[in-house]
Structures are given as C-alpha cells and as structure tokens.
C-alpha cells in the first residue's frame, strides 16, 4: 500500500498508517500495519504502543501486555538516542557524540547501527578520546557478534593511534579467552613496557605462565 501511494516502506510510515487506521476504527488494518512496522523496526515506539493497546482491547492480554512492557522499556532508550543524535547535529566533528549514538543503538539491540556510529566516532576522536570508544566497540564485536578476533584486530589497530595501555590489556584478555596464550602474552608484555610494575598486568602475566 505504501509503495502504491508513492511512499517508501519504512517502520515509521507503517506505524503512522496503523495509527490512522486505529483512529478510524479499522482494527484489522491497524494491526496489520503495526505488525509490519515491527518487522521493519522491532523498537518502533508508535507500533509497540498501538499494537499493545489494540490487542489488550481485543482481549489478547498476554501479547498486548508484553508489547506495552517492551514499549515502556524502549522509550527512555529512544529518548537517549534522540538526545545523542541532536548532539551530533550540533557538533558533528566531535567523536564522543557519535559514540553516544553508538551506545544508544547498542542498548536498543541495533548492533549494525551501533558499529557504524562507533566507527564514525573513532574517525573523529582525538587520540586522548579514543580508548573508551574503542573498548565499547570491541565489546560489541566480542559479545554481540561473538567475534573476539575482530575485536582484537580493532584494539591492535587503534592502539597505534591511541597508545593507551587499556587497549592492549583488553586484547590480552580476549586472546586469553580464545586460548591464544602466546598472543595474549605478547600484548600484556607490551603493556607492561609502557606501564612497568603495574600489578594488574603482572597478575595477568603470572596466570598465563601458570596456564602453560
């Protein structure tokens, strides 16, 4: 229907049509549009609320309440995303602003959008701003995408720009989890060169030696 009317098929458009149908008493049409909106964007606030209310009114209490609970959960996250995006609009060359968008997108479960925001942040960050962003990006790769190797590659690459020991230590921890003890040891020894006698780094190295 959207294409027939000359509009792009987006979650926002489907949700708007659902709301119009709901206000007009077209319950079946409203439900159809809301469900299509959620297929395109599982956290569309209009569709979550509209479909939840629609189902509750129809006596489908379990699904309706689940959708409304989801709506209550995502609204503050969407507000956080809106605030972060406005900050980017005001200062588009400020790396941490893009990182805040990445944080909000990740909290919403949008890992692809979060990764893109982190990459943009890394491109804009000054060296002293970089490490916290890279650590969050690496966490996304390791935890959300289950790709520890990609996370280590990111940490290694960005260390050359940031020169922050935390990136080496995190790479060492990930490689330890992957049972690459040689790679982990190399990162931690390099970290120790930059921060001699650091107790946490020394403790990690001792554990690696004991695990051999």
Could you list some keywords that capture this structure?
11 helices, 80% helix, Serine Threonine Protein Phosphatase 5, Tetratricopeptide repeat, mainly alpha, 212 residues
Helices and strands, with pairings:
Layout: H1 11-23, H2 27-40, H3 45-57, H4 61-90, H5 95-107, H6 111-124, H7 127-144, H8 148-162, H9 165-177, H10 181-194, H11 199-211
Helix pairs in contact: 1-2, 1-3, 2-3, 3-4, 4-5, 5-6, 5-7, 6-7, 7-8, 7-9, 8-9, 9-10, 10-11
What would you note in describing this structure?
- The protein has 212 residues and is mainly α.
- The protein has two domains: 1-74, Serine Threonine Protein Phosphatase 5, Tetratricopeptide repeat, CATH 1.25.40; 91-212, Tetratricopeptide repeat domain (Serine Threonine Protein Phosphatase 5, Tetratricopeptide repeat).
- The chain has helices at 11-23, 27-40, 45-57, 61-90, 95-107, 111-124, 127-144, 148-162, 165-177, 181-194, 199-211.
- Helix 3 (45-57) packs antiparallel against helix 4 and helix 7 (127-144) packs parallel to helix 9 (165-177).
- It is elongated and about 70 Å long.
- The protein starts with 10 loop residues before the first helix and ends with a helix.
């Amino acid at each position: 229907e959207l294409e027939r009317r000359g509009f792009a098929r987006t979650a926002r458009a489907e949700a708007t049509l659902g709301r119009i149908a709901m206000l007009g008493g077209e319950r079946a049409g409203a439900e159809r549009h809301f469900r299509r909106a959620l297929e395109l964007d599982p956290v569309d606030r209009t569709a979550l609320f509209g479909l939840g209310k629609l189902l509750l009114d129809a006596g489908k209490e379990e699904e309706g309440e689940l959708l409304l609970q989801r709506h209550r959960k995502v609204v503050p996250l969407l507000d956080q995303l809106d605030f972060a995006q406005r900050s980017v609009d005001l200062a588009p060359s400020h790396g941490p602003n893009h990182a805040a968008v990445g944080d909000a997108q990740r909290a919403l479960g949008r890992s692809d959008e979060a990764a893109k925001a982190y990459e943009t942040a890394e491109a804009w960050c000054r060296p002293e701003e970089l490490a916290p962003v890279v650590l969050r990006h690496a966490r996304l790769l390791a935890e959300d995408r289950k790709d520890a190797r990609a996370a280590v590659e990111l940490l290694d690459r960005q260390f050359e720009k940031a020169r922050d020991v935390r990136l080496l230590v995190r790479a060492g921890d990930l490689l330890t989890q992957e049972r690459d003890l040689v790679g982990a040891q190399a990162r931690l020894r390099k970290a120790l060169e930059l921060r001699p006698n650091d107790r946490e780094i020394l403790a990690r190295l001792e554990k690696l030696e004991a695990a051999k």
